[in-house]
Amino acid sequence: MDLGHAEWRKSSRSGGGDCVEITRVPGLVAVRDSKHPGGVLIFPETAWERVAATASKS
User: Where is the DUF397 domain (predicted)?
Assistant: First the structure.
């Protein structure tokens, strides 16, 4: 999957520092560490929604 032109977003709570970035493509969410952008995890959109919901409860 080519994510070279993807628009990556950081949480507004990151303060602009190093953190997790995400981008969405149809049906999928790609996640990476802004310090090491070459390592990307790709989740089905429904799985990412469950991860995000669980994390927000913590």
Answer: 6-51
Count the alpha carbons within 13 Å of 12 in the hemisphere toward its beta carbon: 0
SS3 58: coil
52: which 2 tokens? 């995000």
pTM as predicted: 0.79
Alpha-carbon 39 to chain mean position: 11
Tokens linked to 37 = 């952008």
Q: What is the pLDDT of residues 4-46, one digit of tens each?
A: 889 999 877 777 677 889 999 999 999 999 888 889 999 999 9
